[in-house]
Amino acid sequence: MEIGIDSFAAIFPDPVTGKLPSATDRMADLLEEVEIADRVGLDVFGIGEHHRAEFLDSAPAIILAAAAARTRQIRLTSAVTVLSAADPVRVFQEFATLDLISKGRAEIVVGRGSFGEAFPLFGLDTRAYDELFSEKLDLFLKLGETTNITWDGRYRPALRGEGVFPRPHQPRLPLWVGVGGTPASFARAGTLGLPLMVAIIGGSFERFRPLVDLYREAGLRAGHPPEKLKVGVHAMGFVGETDAEARDAFFPGWAHLTRTIGRERRWPAPTRHQFDDMASPEGAFLIGDPKTVATKMFKVSETLGGVSRITFQMSTAALDTAAMKRSIELLGTSVAPIVRATYETP
Predict the structure, then answer these.
(1) Cα–chain center distance at 308
(2) Nearest to 317 by CA among 331, 304, 300
(3) Which residues lie across from 311 on neighbouring strands?
(4) Which PANTHER family does this UniProt record tie to the protein (predicted)?
């Protein structure tokens, strides 16, 4: 099982003064987080894509390229690239360039996006939400197969044999499909035979088992071998010296972000009781001391019929950067050895 971290480069105001920290300093902290993850032997680090004031990750390929120059072995990926709102040719070029800089450590997770800000920002119609993604994913996959491409679509000008450069260091850029809770998205990834990255940010892991089964069934029906149908999980996670320490470090940022987004989406205000339920053995947060987190990772894999990768979304702890850096260290030095003693990395 591969173990990694996903960051949204969150930047939150000080809870006492209400003042935002320097975006420059926050970016420096983020790059240091990637360096720590590389040093302690984690497998992958992902940068999300958002177009909001709370996050600094609107250009993930640039952040990943900076990280590539400062790391040696960790794989670097998006988490996720909002392909629906982008030009697949440009995205391919960016990640092929990242792959050259990192000497073959680049990956990409593509998705439709759980936030809608990118669509009006780039002049796209949200009513074509699924059609945009389907067409652009088709083009992106074809770009990995040929340098000079001929292609027609509805949402992007046709290509008539133009060359797309540079080509990546790897024979093919590893690509995962990021999904939430839409059954058709699981089935599409399975039919295409693409690895699946499931975002589970609340509720329970059990409720996603039927969707993961749907993915695997669709893949087998399409003729893909079982070993090709990899499943990864992106979840809220944080490691502390004790369960209480981990929860106390993670809760303030989680509550701030949930409250901010909740006002937009008319959610009820988050509570500490709700948070503690999610961090309990039955909830979907991987938060606690190393033994607690490792035990819960075993449960995730068992519940979903086996997973190849788990990535921790811990950037909501950005209110306490020292605790977050310590969490990364503990994930690599204390949690990973427990997990790897049981699961071999594919």
Answers:
(1) 14
(2) 331
(3) 4, 234
(4) BLR5498 PROTEIN, LUCIFERASE-LIKE MONOOXYGENASE
Q: In degrees to the nearest 10, what's the CA dihedral of 236, 241, 245, 251?
A: -10
**pTM recorded for the entire structure:** 0.96
Across the strands, what pairs with 236?
313
CA distance 269 to 224: 44
Question: In the 8-state DSSP scheme, what is residue 176?
Answer: E
- Token pair, residue 295, equals 């035990």
346: confidence class by pLDDT, cuts 50, 70, 90? very low
Residue type, 153: G
Which tokens in the block code for residue 137? 């994913």
Q: Are strands 159-163 and 148-151 parallel, antiparallel or unpaired?
A: antiparallel
pLDDT digits (tens, 9 = 90+) for 214-241: 999 999 999 999 999 999 999 999 999 9
What percentage of the chain exceeds 70 in pLDDT? 99
In one-letter notation, the amino acid at residue 106 is A
d(CA 37, CA 240): 15
Cis peptide before 270 (omega within 30 of 0): no
What distances in angstroms separate CA 283 from CA 188, 248, 288, 314, one per listed residue? 28, 17, 12, 16
For residue 66 the two structure tokens come to 């900076």
CA distance 147 to 167: 8
Give helix then strand counts, H and E, for the chain.
Answer: 12, 12
Architecture of 2-344 per CATH?
A: Alpha-Beta Barrel (3.20)
Torsion 337-242-246-67 (CA) sign: negative
The answer to whether residues 175 and 138 touch, using CB atoms and an 8 Å cutoff, is no
Quote the tokens at residue 218. Answer: 């669709």
